[in-house]
């Protein structure tokens, strides 16, 4: 009986000592996970920096109906909540780093998502700092380290980011809509040059710049933004575009300004619509040219092709939702109907 009593006492003391030992262990932890991809740094940053995308890539809950986005949803002070949890962007450094604070199931994490270029690829890195509760310390004592327990969850988030962007990039369609009438347009423009991969980023930056320009000079936008195709360097793959914003009235810019105001006359053109990322622009242009040749239409040499951004990067970060109209000006106002009897 005494032996059993001593065993119980020793067992109780062991539990007490173990409890004290676990409780006094270091609470703070830091882990880091990473994922490599061929996607551009700008594209990755833009996707993560917009919390409208958070419900799609986070590893804790994919029930989108539970997410509530704050009025600020991208960049510094952006916030999203779900089921008592929260993600908050404390700070964002353009195309470089996103400081993302998380409060999930009662655990708070201070995290940093950043990007590094290495041998032609880009690494997405996620550094996480947190504090362990007593229950979590007990779990870790018997099961592993913060890296082995929490690392896989955060790693899943990075994999989701990469796979969602790639899926969106690969989802596109091209549809021909025939000859359309384009009215006379007054617009401000800025010339940009880029390769096809970074074209969307360049256009986005220019559109933001012109939006700010229009606000500063109280110019009223008058329709969807568009680009005028200027030139392509076949050897380098670089494309030269004029990024344009329609406005209501003529505006005279100062000499030397990178933004100028012009007027384009009314015209007819053959239209093909791309739903998807701008990286597929070359396919849409090929389709327009093919249709013009197929219907024996004649291009207007005095007007350059243009793209009209009906739903764009300014509206949604999901590139599979972007809708762009590709138009080549032609002399005809309708597609001639060929009489099959005459052909025979």
Task: Summarize the topology.
Blueprint (H helix, E strand, L loop, with lengths): L1 H22 L4 E10 L3 H8 L5 H4 L9 E3 L9 E4 L2 E9 L3 E8 L2 E12 L2 E11 L2 H10 L2 H25 L2 E10 L2 E11 L3 H18 L9 E8 L4 E9 L13 E5 L2 E9 L5 H14 L11 E6 L11 E8 L9 H4 L1
Antiparallel strand pairs: 1-7, 2-3, 3-4, 4-5, 5-6, 6-7, 8-13, 9-11, 9-12, 10-11, 10-14, 13-15, 14-15
Structural overview:
The chain has 2 domains: 26-170, 2-Layer Sandwich (Alpha-D-Glucose-1,6-Bisphosphate, Chain A, domain 4), CATH 3.30.530; 173-330, Multidrug-efflux Transporter 1 Regulator Bmrr, Chain A. It is built from 8 helices and 15 strands. The protein has helices spanning 2-23, 41-48, 54-57, 134-143, 146-170, 199-216, 281-294, 340-343; strands at 28-37, 67-69, 79-82, 85-93, 97-104, 107-118, 121-131, 173-182, 185-195, 226-233, 238-246, 260-264, 267-275, 306-311, 323-330. The strands form 2 sheets. It has an 8-stranded antiparallel sheet. The longest helix has 25 residues, at 146-170. The N and C termini lie far apart (113 Å). The relative contact order is 0.12. Mean pLDDT is 84; it is low at 340-344.
């Amino acid at each position: 009986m005494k032996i059993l009593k001593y065993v119980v006492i020793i067992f109780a003391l062991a539990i007490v000592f173990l409890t004290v030992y676990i409780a006094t262990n270091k609470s703070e932890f830091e882990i880091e996970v990473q994922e490599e991809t061929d996607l551009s740094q700008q594209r990755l940053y833009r996707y993560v920096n917009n919390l409208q995308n958070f419900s799609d890539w986070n590893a804790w809950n994919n029930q989108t109906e539970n997410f509530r986005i704050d009025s600020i949803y991208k960049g510094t002070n952006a916030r999203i909540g779900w089921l008592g949890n929260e993600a908050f962007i404390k700070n964002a450094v353009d195309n470089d780093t996103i400081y993302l604070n998380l409060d999930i199931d009662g655990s708070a994490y201070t995290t940093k998502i950043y990007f590094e270029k290495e041998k032609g690829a880009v690494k997405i890195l996620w550094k996480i700092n947190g504090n362990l509760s007593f229950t979590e310390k007990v779990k870790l004592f018997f099961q592993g380290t913060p890296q082995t327990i929490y690392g896989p969850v955060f790693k899943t988030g990075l994999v989701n980011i990469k796979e969602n962007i790639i899926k969106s990039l690969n989802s596109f369609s091209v549809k021909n809509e025939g000859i359309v009438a384009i009215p006379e347009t007054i617009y401000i423009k800025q010339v940009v040059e880029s390769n096809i991969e970074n074209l969307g980023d360049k256009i986005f930056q220019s559109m933001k710049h012109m939006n700010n320009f229009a606000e500063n000079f109280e110019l009223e936008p008058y329709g969807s933004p568009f680009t005028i195709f200027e030139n392509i360097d076949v050897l380098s793959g670089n494309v030269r575009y004029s990024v344009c914003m329609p406005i209501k009235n003529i505006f005279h810019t100062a000499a030397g300004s990178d933004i100028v105001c012009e007027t384009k006359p009314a015209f007819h053109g053959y239209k093909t619509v791309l739903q998807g990322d701008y990286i597929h622009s070359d396919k849409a242009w090929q389709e327009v040219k093919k249709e013009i040749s197929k219907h024996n239409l004649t291009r207007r040499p005095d007007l350059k092709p243009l793209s009209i951004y009906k739903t764009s990067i300014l509206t949604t970060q999901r590139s599979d939702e972007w809708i762009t109209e590709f138009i080549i000006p032609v002399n005809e106002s309708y597609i001639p109907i060929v009489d099959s009897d005459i052909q025979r």
